[in-house]
Every structure is written in C-alpha cells, then in structure tokens.
Amino acid sequence: MPPPGIVIEGLCLRYAGESIFENLSVTLPGGRFSALLGPSGVGKTSLLRIIAGLEAPAAGRVYAEDNAPLAGRVAYMAQQDLLLPWASALNNVMLGATLRGEARDPQRAEALLHRVGLGHRLRALPATLSGGERQRVALARTLYEERPVVLMDEPFSALDAISRARIQELAAELLDQRTVLLITHDPLEACRLGHSLWVLAGNPATLGSPLTVPGAPPRAPDNNSVLHMQGELLRRLAALSPA
Ligand SMILES: Nc1ncnc2c1ncn2[C@@H]1O[C@H](COP(=O)(O)OP(=O)(O)OP(=O)(O)O)[C@@H](O)[C@H]1O
C-alpha cells in the first residue's frame, strides 16, 4: 500500500477559550515531503500532535486519503531526541517494540544504525554520543518503526550547520517515498527537503497556498531552485513579522 496523503478537514483548536485555528483544511500529498514553517506559537506543533492522534481538536478531522485508519501508521520524531539515558543506542532504536511488548529485531536495528553511520556505537549510551549522533539514533528509531507517515518537529534544529546538512541528506534518502511532514524554522532546510512548503500564520492560523520546489530532495544548498525558493519563503515569512 503506498503511503497515503493526509486530509485535514475543518480543524478547530482552542486552548482556554483562545482560538489557535478555526476551520483549517489542507491535504498533504502522499509519498512526499511537506515542510511547515511559521512564527513561534502559531500552532505548528499542535497541528502535528493532532495528526499524530496525541491531541483532540475541538472540531474537524484528520484522515488518510486511502480511508484506512491512520492509527499505527504514523511515526513521530520530536525536537529533543528523547532517548532513554540508561539504554544503549541499539536498545533505544528498538524502544517502541519494547514498550509495546513486541518481539524485537536486533539485526534490523543494527542495520539501521549502520545506515545512519553509527554501526561502531551500537552499545553506546546516549550521554557518550554527540548531539548529532543522538539525533541519528532518533532517526534510526523512527525508521525502525517502518511507518508510512512520518511527522518531524524541528528534529535537526539543535545541530551545527555541517551535522545538520548531513542528517538532512540522510533523512531525505531514508524517508524517500514516505508521507513526511517536517516542522522547521529554517528556510534552507525546508527548501532542501520539501516538495511542498506551507506557511502557517495568523490568529486564528491559516495556511497560505503552498510553494512547490522542483527537483528531488535532498537538493544542494546552492541549487538554483533552493536559492530562489528560499528567497520567496523569507519574503513570505518577513511579511508576517513587520519590523
Ligand atoms: N496544552 C496547552 N495548553 C494551553 N495552551 C497551549 C497548549 N499547547 C500549546 N498551547 C499554546 O498554543 C499555541 C500554539 O502552540 P504550538 O506549540 O503549537 O506552537 P508552535 O507554532 O509549534 O511554536 P514554536 O515554533 O515556538 O514551537 C501557543 O500559544 C501555546 O502557548
């Protein structure tokens, strides 16, 4: 079954009477990388949590375009790596299976750690890994779940420029063909990885029309369409934050 598109229909979310979004509707294309940008506090994480089924909207619904249930088909990768400090890299990759009481597959976990370049640190505890290495373990854990839909909330924001560029390339390669929604504050990251770029803005928040980036991710930082789209995106974001 190909990764489904995600339909968001008439979503309303309110916290303590304050409206975050009203009647928000959008379809995220299946098998594609969508990047979501927007000012701090606008509701990006809340939207991701609703799609992940971690939060209930006041109204509206989220469903898969193929109409099969989304439950069990979504993986979530958070901003912090959320690794268990006392578990090895290998056991952290298999954490989901452990928590669900399922049989674990150490060989597959090991193969994934090799793919993210950590084949030599299988037994390492998180405290002995760098920030970039921990995020690579978190990426391997996300991949271990083999879900067709992957939600990522600023997963690479804490990394230095070079580690970030490397893990972006890895993520684009390893998540190819899945339905990915990536929250980022980084226009370059959005333009390197995204097929469609969305800006969430306003109060209540709305989504403008998406920008489409031509070519396959990961695009080179100096790729012409990346440079062009980055400029366009910065203009859109700047228009939302008057000086
Ligand atoms: N559980 C909650 N209870 C009350 N208010 C909340 C809750 N979760 C989020 N909010 C508020 O809802 C708004 C949207 O929060 P959200 O985390 O979705 O924003 P965001 O766009 O992801 O921000 P950032 O870019 O800073 O991560 C914020 O004003 C936040 O304070």
Please, could you describe this protein's structure?
There is one protein chain. The protein is an alpha/beta fold and 243 residues long. It has a domain at 1-73 and 182-242: 3-Layer(aba) Sandwich (Rossmann fold), CATH 3.40.50.300. It contains eight helices and ten strands. It has helices at 44-51, 89-93, 95-99, 106-115, 131-144, 161-174, 187-193, 224-240; strands at 6-15, 18-28, 33-37, 59-64, 74-77, 149-153, 179-183, 196-201, 206-207, 211-212. The strands form two sheets. Strands 3, 5, 6, 7, 8, 9 and 10 form a seven-stranded mixed β-sheet that branches. Strands 2-1-4 form a three-stranded antiparallel β-sheet, covered by helices on one side. Helix 4 crosses helix 5, helix 5 runs parallel beside helix 6 (161-174) and helix 7 (187-193) crosses helix 8. The protein starts with 5 loop residues before the first strand and ends with a helix. 39% of the residues are buried. It binds adenosine-5'-triphosphate. Adenosine-5'-triphosphate binds at residues 15-16, 20, 38, 40-46.
Please describe the structure with a list of short key phrases separated by commas or semicolons.
3-stranded antiparallel beta sheet, Rossmann fold, ABC_transporter-like_CS, Putative hydroxymethylpyrimidine transport system ATP-binding protein, alpha/beta, AAA+_ATPase
Class of one domain in CATH?
Answer: Alpha Beta
Number of H- or I-type helical stretches: 8
Number of strands: 10
User: Globular, elongated, flat, extended or rod-shaped: what is the shape?
Assistant: globular
CATH architecture of one domain: 3-Layer(aba) Sandwich
| CATH fold topology of one domain | Rossmann fold
GO molecular function, one term: ATP binding
Protein name: Putative hydroxymethylpyrimidine transport system ATP-binding protein
Family: Belongs to the ABC transporter superfamily.
Pfam families: ABC_tran
